[in-house]
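Q: I'm teaching a short session on how sequence maps to structure, and I want students to see two examples side by side rather than one. Could you give me a first protein with its sequence written out and its structure tokens following it? Keep the formatting plain so it prints cleanly on a handout.
A: Of course. Example one:
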Amino acid sequence: MLLNCWKLIEKDKKFPSDLRNVKEIKFKDFKKKIKDKKKSQIIINNLFKGDTYLIRNTISKKIINDLKKYLILISKSDSSSFHKIKEGCPNFNRIINKNIRSIP
């Protein structure tokens, strides 16, 4: 339903080049709206008019906290390094701070 509505509007309208509004909405409310045909059409029309939706609470707090812990662990166990992104490039992290060596 949502995809069909998107394709119909996409045929008649151009993608926006300017931001009109930022609309903040909780994920549970957004999920309800996109399941309703009229409300989903309004959302899609608003997107094509230049609105952006900031959808809150899409990821659980537990996942966010686990991710933070994991990233802190990585930052403590691996030293900062830099590699050009190309085939075979190792995973790395780089800490950018006021240290003169980190400023180009």
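Q: Perfect. Now a second example for contrast.
A: Example two:
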Amino acid sequence: MNALIQEELGKILLKEFEVPPGALLTITSVETSSDRDHAVVKVSIYPTDRAAALFETLTRRQSYLQHLLNQTLFMEHVPTIHFRLDTLEEHAAAVEELIDRAVKE
């Protein structure tokens, strides 16, 4: 279920959530509660100096994104999503390295 939510929510974010040029929003993981009522969606935002503003916008649109996810997943009960900012520095460094490589190529 976690992978399905991550994949479908990722598609929704690509279509419905405007990320400013030069910024990157990535779903790093989804963790669904054992009762399947809630799903914590961890997101990473690069560059980190834009993280607070982008994360605030994301959480403001949470209800709308939940609505779209509910329409997309053909399940009797879709877990309620809760966004959390993934602040792991190692992940940010890895993303930065990938971007640097892509720019150089």
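Q: What should students look for in example two?
A: Point them to this: The beta strands are 24-32, 38-46, 80-85. Also worth mentioning: The chain has one domain: 2-104.
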